[in-house]
Amino acid sequence: MQIEQQGKTFTVQRTPGVSLLDAALGQGVLLDHKCKKGTCGRCMVTVLAGAHLLAPKTRREREKTDQPAKRLACQAQIQ
Description:
Elements: E1 2-5, E2 8-11, H1 20-26, E3 44-49, H2 59-64, E4 70-72
Antiparallel strand pairs: 1-2, 1-3, 3-4
C-alpha cells in the first residue's frame, strides 16, 4: 500500500494482523510517531493506495479526523 506523511510517500507491504505503523517500522519505513496509543495524532498518514487492506477506522481514528483517507498508523490494522 502507499501512504503519505509530511509530504513524503512510502510503500508498505501488506502484513496482516499488525498495525500499519508496526508494519512500516518493521520494513524500515521511518514514520513519525510518538505514543502508539492513538492519542497524540503524530502518526497520521494519508492512504494513497491500498485502503481496502485496512480494517475500518477505530474510535480514536474517528475522533481525530473525518477524512476517509486519513488514518492513524498506530491504530489502522492491516487485514
